[in-house]
Amino acid sequence: KKLIDGMTVEEKIGQLAQFNANVFSGSDADITGPLVKNGLTGDDLYRIGSLLNFKDSKEMNELQKRHLEGDRNKIPMVFMMDVIHGYRTIFPIPLALGGSFDTELVEECTRMSAVEASSAGVQVTFTPMVDYVRDARWGRVMETCGEEPILNGIMGAAQIKAFHGEDMSKAGCLATCVKHFAAYGGAEAGRDYNQVELSEHILREFYLPAYKACIDAGVDMLMPSFNVLNGVPAVANSWLMKKVLREEWGFEGVVISDYDAVGELITHGIAADKKEAAKYAFKNGCDIEMCSNGYIKHLKEMIEEGIFTEEQLDAVVLKILELKKRLGLFEDPYKGASPETEEKTCLTAENRALVRKAASECAVLLKNDGVLPFSKEHKKIALIGPFADNHNIIGFWSCCGKNEESVTVKQGIQSKLPDVEIKVVKGCSDKWNEIDKSEFDEAVKAAREADIVILCLGEPQNYSGEGNCRTDLDLPGVQNELAEKVIGANSNTAVLLFTGRPLAISKLDSIAPAILNMWFPGTEGGNAAADLLFGDANPSGKITMTFPKSVGQCPIYYNHTNTGRPISKQRDEMHNPYASNYIDCGNLPLYSFGHGLSYSNFVYKGLELSSDKITKDAPVTAKITVKNDSNIAGKETVMLYMRDVYASNSRPVQQMIAFEKVEIAAGETKVVEFEIDESMLRFWNNEHKFVSEPGLFKISTGYADHLIYTTDLILE
Ligand code: NOJ
Description:
Elements: H1 2-5, H2 9-15, E1 17-20, H3 28-37, E2 50-52, H4 57-70, E3 78-81, H5 94-98, H6 103-119, E4 124-125, H7 149-164, E5 175-181, H8 200-207, H9 209-216, E6 221-224, E7 228-229, E8 232-233, H10 238-248, E9 254-255, H11 264-267, H12 274-283, E10 289-290, H13 294-304, H14 310-326, H15 339-345, H16 349-362, E11 364-368, E12 380-384, H17 409-416, E13 421-425, H18 440-449, E14 452-458, H19 479-489, E15 493-498, H20 506-511, E16 514-517, H21 525-533, E17 602-609, E18 613-614, E19 620-628, E20 634-644, E21 655-664, E22 669-676, E23 683-684, E24 690-691, E25 695-703, E26 706-715
Helix pairs in contact: 2-13, 2-14, 6-7, 6-15, 6-16, 7-9, 12-13, 16-21, 17-21, 18-19
C-alpha cells in the first residue's frame, strides 16, 4: 500500500498491462519498432507489470534486470507462459492425461513441469484449462479433460496444487490461471472463437462447475474467454464476470484478459473504439489487459473524466502487487532462474522416465481382436504409416518442448528389440490435401514379408490446438486406403493412432484387428508405444470424450437427456420413424466416454448398496466387486453413475458421480467402495438453485452406454 501511495497514475496503469516479451527484447535501438507498433513509448517500457512468451531464462534475466534498473519503484515484472503439458519434457496432451483417471500421475507430471518452467523463469502459468467440451471439431479439445464436468474439476484442482508446490514464493513453484471463463468449448459448430449461446441451466450444470472447482482449489488468476456468451463477449459480460464470478463465487484473484480480447470488443461490435473497449473490460473486473493497449492509452483519461476513480485503480494494483509478493518476487525477482539451473533441471533422465510412464498410462486400447500384445519373438516387423518414424508427436501447446527431442515409434521399438529387422515405409502423408499413393506398393510388400505390422496413422499435431478446427474427423488424406491395403496383406496388424481429438474412424475400426490410441503422447511417445505393443506395459487409459461414428453426430456426449422419443440400443442401427435419430446413422457413438480395453480381463461381479434409501443425513455406500480374470496384472478405473429418473427438469440418462483407478493382480478380486451422499444427487433446477429432489434414482457401474448392475435408490 505504501508503494502504491508513491506511484503515479501512469505507473499504476502499467501494472495492468501485459505484452509479449518480443516487444521489449533486443537493444534499445530495435525495441523502437515493436514499441511503436503497440502504441507504447519508451517510458512504458519500465512500467509494464508483466510479460508473456519469453524465450528462456537468459532472456528473462536480461529483461527483468533492465526493467528493474529503469523502474524507479523497483517493482519486478511477473513472467507468464502457457505451461500446458510440460515445459521442456512433454507429457501427453490433457485430453489424454484426464483419461488416465489418475490424479497422482497428473500431480507428478505437473510438478515436474513446474520445476522445469520455474528454472527457465516462468512464474505464472496459464493453466489449468478446464473448458467443458462436446464437439470434437473444436481444435482445443486437446487441452481439456473432455465431456465430464467432475473430472475436469478434479484434474484442474490437481494441477493447481502441483503448480503451487509447498510454498509459492520459492523456486519451482508457480501461480496458476484458470481459463477460459466461460464456455469457450461450446463454440458453435466447433469453430474456434465462434459464439456460444447456452441456457443458464446448461451453463451451470455442465460448463461452470470445473472453473468453480479450480477457484475452490485456490487458483490465483482467471482468464475470461474470447467468445460471445449469450450475446456479450466474456470479458465484458457483467452477468458472468461480476454476478457469477465475483458476487456468487467471491473470487478475489486477478483476472487477465485473453490475448487482445479487450481490443476484440471492437470487432465483436460491442465497443466503438479502444477507449470504450477498455471501459467495458475494466468495469467488469478485468484487471490485466493482455496484448492490447486500451488501459495504457485510455484509463488515465477515464479516471480524469470521472468514469472510474483512482481508488478503483489502486484496488486492482494492490491485487497484482499482492500476487507478486506471494510469488516472492520482491525478494528474488528471478526466483532462481538461470541458464545453469535450466540446463540442470530440464529434460533429465528422471523426467523422461516419468513422461514415458504417463504416456503408457494414458494410451487407450480402443480395439483388440487378440493381436496385442505382440510377442517379442517375431523376427521381422513392418512399421508403416506417416507416424512410423515421426518426431511430431508431442502435441500442440508444447511450450519449450522440441519435436526433435521426442522418441519416434521406430526408435522406441528399435531400442526395445535391437536384434529385430524393422522395415519402415511411410506409405502416405498425414495431411488432408496430400493424396499421393505412390508408396502403397512398397508398404504392401513390407507388410507381406513381415511377421507383424505396426501401422502408425493419425492427424498431424497442428490439426488440433488453438485455431485448428476440422469439419472432417476421419483420418486425413489416403490413410484409410493405405490401411485397407496393408491389413489386406497381413492381418497380424495393430494400428497405433496419433491424434489430438476424438476421430470418426468407423472405416478403420471395421478393418483393423487392433487400435491403440496414443493421442499425442509427448517426448517419450515412441518408447511408451513399444512398452505397450510388446506387453511391458498394460493399457489402462479410458477415453473422456466420445468418438463419433461420423462427424454428423457431433456434438455427441454420454451425459445427454433421454428426449421424449428415444430409441433402444437394439434398434440403433436402423431408422426409427418419428423417433430421435438419423436416417443414415445410429445414435450410438463409435467409442463411448469411459471406453478403454486392457490386456487383463476385468469382470464386474456386482454392485451393492448399503441401503436402498438415502437421506440428507444418511449417506449410502456402494460396493463394486471386480475380478481380474486373466494372468496379467492390470489397472481398471471403476466408475459410479447415477440417473435421476424423475425431476423438475429432464435429467441426463447417466452422470458419473465418482471414480477410482485400482490395480488388480492377476486372478485377484477387489471391492471398490464409494460413499454416495445427497449432495451428489443435486442438479441446477429451473430457478437456478442447486437442489436434490426426492424420488427414484438409478445407480450403476460400467460406463456410458455400457452401464451394468443398475440398482434403485430412493432419496427421501
Ligand atoms: C490465447 C489462448 O486462448 C490462451 O489460452 C493463452 O493462454 C493466451 N493466448 C496466451 O498465450
